[in-house]
Design goal:
By secondary structure, the chain is an alpha+beta fold. Helix content is 50%, strand content 8%.
Length: 357
Amino acid sequence: MSHQLLPAAPQLPGAYVNLLTKLVSQRGVSTQLLLSGSGITLKKLDRPYWHLDFACFDALLRRAIQLTGEPDLPVKLGLQMTVTCHGPVGFAMLVSPDLRAAIQLGCELLHHQCRGLRFTLHEGQDKSTLRLEQPLASHQLGDDALMFLMVGLGKVAGALAGRPCPARAEMTMVKPDDAHRFLRRLFRFKAKSNQWVFSTACLAWPLPNADPIAARLVGAQCKRFILARNLPTDSVRQTIRQLVMHTTDGQPGIEQVAKKLKVSARTLQRQLASEGANFSDISEQVRCEKAAQLLRARRQTVSSIAEELGYASVANFCRAFRRWYSCTPSDYIKATVDEAPHDHPTLGWPPHHVADA
């Protein structure tokens, strides 16, 4: 069941979570502990292609940082990224004739796969940029997830080329405290855009796995795969989640949602049950995601946010928030306060020599 008026929620490859569970397990954190409360099952991790929404990945990454006590975990996770973890898109890029063709194909296909992220290649005479943008104001990744993607982007580009390319990364965020040495070497912070800057000459490099015939076949198959996945086949749970998320006049109840979807509340409950879900859990998760957005904006008190989101008391709100984000609203505010450190941009990419991940 789907609702044609609802925008599809942008989602990230589930392979990112597989990378994350492997990384934290090496640090003694069990997969079950990391995934607790996320709604992601061990069975789902075994699927070849699955996806999760931005808020869920943000929450998992923050939880992994808390459980491991490693603030630079997003960098270490980015250094684990591979081309093939992007499924058909990755394979299509691997067999492209040169780095330019691979990047252009990736920019096109990844945006179709996830509308919440836009990768664009801007070519200059000497220097070019590969920019990462978030075009949807309603769906924004946090700084930790963006850091992971930026590091992973550099890692993937280096793996495609098979050799180093002089480059640096620029990010709009401020430099993290006790920045990973990889960041100190390659990143410049408080920039105007999130992007990699590199020599234009690198774009003409032939790829070691180039195969023109395979590139045409895999590229065409990849486009069909993505188009089929983007057809309006959302589950009832996804449809309700999007409807609740995009409602601006308060937190809707199941009767209101059922009315908008032109079914009875009982039918809606029955369809959710068939997917192993229930309305109250979906509604609570969405409220906590909205709460995180309001807390990051720091324009309201915790009590006013709790009231706006329909909680009977601040205590109820805090308990719900802790279940999803593993911290209190006050702790979340403290953790997201920007500080203005100094930065020292450097060159040298890809980081094949970095071994402390």
